[in-house]
Amino acid sequence: MATKSDIMLYTEGTPNGLKISIALEELGLSYQVREIALFQNEQKEPWFLEINPNGRIPAITDKDESGQEIKVFESGAILQYLVARYDKDHVISYPYGTKEHWEVTSWLMWQMGGVGPMQGQANHFARFAPEKNPYSLGRYVHETRRLYRVMEGHLAKSPSGYLVGDRVTIADIAIWPWVTAYKYSGLSSIDEFPNVVQWMYKLLERPGFERGRHVPKPHIYLDMNRLSEEELNEKAKYGVQWIQDAMKRDAAA
């Protein structure tokens, strides 16, 4: 039985959004979901900007002990909020101040400052740029591959197969949705990183990951890894003009 909470998750089925639904499922929390219509620019509407002034997903609202509304945005901050408030038994975390806690924090920041931005840019230049720019694509794909190599070396030394210690943590949760989207982001394969591949499928065996990856709709990225480049580019066509329009709006704001 899920533990009651007042959490409302504002999300879409992107890697950053999936981090939060997976964490919520791993913690066994009840929560509500509000799918944000990104391609209708719902994330830019005034009501949503009151929750996240940056106009991005994911975001959550919750209530404190006195009933006051709490608003948290940025996926890393949300993950830290969830464990600080709801993970008293350290199901997906370690006690604050322990060496494991700081290792988890380090890997979380590694994802937020490295894998997410680099792979996100690789995705943009692989699928959504109006013109192919080999230098830009190569820059971000190679940096993403370097980051995967860092993770590969670390996991090779992990007895548990997790990033930190003997359990899954918010570090694993933050990185996993990005790794599942490797091919859509321009990496043709990750077979050169066998420990990363093993880690990815080990986590998929967890019920929390299986449930959380399908919020707010079925997870697409693992299946997309089996598609050809032509098929992937065809699927991405829907977003090319939307991204160009969004760039123009942001520049004019």
Describe what is shown at a glance.
With 253 residues, this protein is an alpha+beta fold. 55% of the residues lie in helices and 7% in strands. The chain folds into two domains: 8-86, Glutaredoxin; 99-229, Glutathione S-transferase Yfyf (Class Pi), Chain A, domain 2 (Up-down Bundle), CATH 1.20.1050.10.
Structural write-up:
The protein is α+β, with helices and mostly antiparallel strands. The chain has 2 domains: 79 residues, 3-Layer(aba) Sandwich (Glutaredoxin); 131 residues, Glutathione S-transferase Yfyf (Class Pi), Chain A, domain 2, CATH 1.20.1050. 55% of the residues lie in helices and 7% in strands. The chain contains 10 helices and 4 strands. It has a 4-stranded mixed sheet with strand order 2-1-3-4, with helices on one face. It is globular and about 50 Å long. The chain starts with 7 loop residues before the first strand and ends with a helix. The mean pLDDT is 96.
SSE topology sketch:
Elements: E1 8-11, H1 15-27, E2 32-35, H2 46-49, E3 59-63, E4 69-73, H3 75-86, H4 99-128, H5 134-156, H6 170-180, H7 194-204, H8 207-212, H9 221-224, H10 229-252
Helix pairs in contact: 1-3, 1-6, 4-5, 4-6, 5-7
